[in-house]
Amino acid sequence: xxxxxxxxxxxxxxxxxxxxxxxxxxxxxxxxxxxxxxxxxxxxxxxxxxxxxxxxxxxxxxxxxxxxxxxxxxxxxxxxxxxxxxxxxxxxxxxxxxxxxxxxxxxxxxxxxxxxxxxxxxxxxxxxxxxxxxxxxxxxxxxxxxxxxxxxxxxxxxxxxxxxxxxxxxxxxxxxxxxxxxxxxxxxxxxxxxxxxxxxxxxxxxxxxxxxxxxxxxxxxxxxxxxxxxxxxxxxxxxxxxxxxxxxxxxxxxxxxxxxxxxxxxxxxxxxxxxxxxxxxxxxxxxxxxxxxxxxxxxxxxxxxxxxxxxx
Length: 312
Fold this sequence. Notes:
Layout lengths: L2 E8 L2 H17 L4 E8 L22 H9 L4 E5 L12 E5 L7 E5 L13 E3 L3 H10 L4 E3 L5 H9 L5 E5 H6 L7 E3 L13 E5 L6 H10 L2 H17 L7 E6 L4 E9 L6 E9 L4 H18 L10
Parallel strand pairs: 1-2, 1-3, 6-7, 6-8
Antiparallel strand pairs: 3-10, 4-10, 5-8, 5-9, 11-12, 12-13
């Protein structure tokens, strides 16, 4: 007999699109033996329209209601943008599958300029991300930065309404929605993204999954995404990363030598602490986890053991 897999996700157009993609991949991998049913949730994070995450509890706000649904057995798996998932999962939950990583770069969105450098002095840029704000202040301390919360469509409407002259949107989300032409991609070396940006992951309590569902999830999981997640999440865990500190990190895998780069930026953009750790191209997950952790420990040592942070 076939299995039904109940899939939990946020209800934004992007989150729903990602969940439907995972559903299709699972059904195809199982040869039709598993049928997915998507249930949407309005999370606490979705209800924030102006406040920063740190004022209300951090990035776990985007997963809390779905986490509860997994714990209670109302859904079997959760589909998350991995950059929104706290560094520590709820007890019993594991990341059981990773979709192929989409473009991890930041997208600069502006109707009058092609890059941050092209904005006039004193221009207004909208972002609710303390990382993006800190990186912007580092590059352009003259700009005025205003809070910009909401899903992709909401932020584009705010931009169109003139609430700011420019903003940032992840190229991954724009690409999945077919809106990538609206943004100018920023190269990774110029603006390092959030750890795990562009990765969609599946969380579950493995022991509760049916055998066919578990096998299908393992079949669709992308090893390159899993490798990146190992290094980038280890970096966050070692830093005890939260939404209060501007943290960036990325695993570069296209070279024969794998390279992890991690950064912590002062919230006012006055200083950056970074570290690069190299691994062989065939490094295993343990090696990559160590790379992320070692980069974090080096940065923490340079900081005297205390991370710069924004007060809630």
